[in-house]
Amino acid sequence: MLDACTRGVKAAEALIRPGTLIRDLNNAAFDSYIKAGLLKDAEARTMPYNWSTAEDGTPREILRQYVPDADYEAQGRRLMHVYPATHGPHNPNLGHSVGMAGGQNAFNISSHNYDRLEEGMVFVLHAQWLEPMSAGCNIGDMYVVTRDGFENLSRHTPLETHRIAA
Q: Which residue from 87, 139, 127, 107 is spatially nearest to 21, judged by alpha carbons?
């Protein structure tokens, strides 16, 4: 899962330049999920995702559950986890614009966005996946489209997994 998310962000990043279809960023990133067997395609409308409806179309109950955590409880706190009831990305998109909320330049990086990147656009790509109560990943970077490519605004934090011995 971590590898698929990391490869996804890097594949999308390689396409960032003026004129690129936003849809192509999305599809490049989700290709790593397809190769990992997590998805069948990169289309938002077919993805399982955390806030999707139940299979019969009714609202999905989002459960709140106690999660034992000795370190947290040693601080006098109790960890209650709100978790989605299905696997998949949080939303069926790869990222979104960064700017004034509700501004005219707001957009999502998704399979249904056929707009083209333009110089000056700022957005985040954050590949994500969740296996409820098991594992999750949400990694990415923030970019600005430049005249001849992009600048990674969060380049000082590597995407690669760093494991620490327990």
A: 107
What is the 8-class DSSP label of residue 35?
H
Do the Cβ atoms of 147 and 18 come closer than 8 Å?
A: yes
Torsion of CA 11, 42, 81, 65, to 10 degrees: -150
* CB burial readout 124-161, b (16+ within 10 A) else e: bbbbbbbebeeebbebbbbbebeeeebeeeeeeeebee
How does 90-114 read in b/e, with b if 16+ C-beta sit within 10 Å? Answer: ebbbbbbbeeeeeeeeebbbbbebe
> For residue 29, what are its two tokens?
């990133």
Condensed to tens digits (0 to 9), the pLDDT of residues 73-100 reads 999 998 877 665 567 776 778 888 988 6
CB atoms within 10 A of CB 30: 27
How far apart are the C-alpha atoms of 133 and 136, rounded to whole Å? Answer: 9
CB 94, CB 29: distance < 8 Å: yes
Establish how many alpha carbons lie within 13 A of residue 31's alpha carbon, considering only the half-sphere containing its beta carbon: 12
Q: Is the pTM of this model over 0.85?
A: no
Tokens of 49: 């995702």
Task: Give the contacts of 62 (CB within 8 A, at least 6 positions apart).
Answer: 51, 82, 83, 84, 85
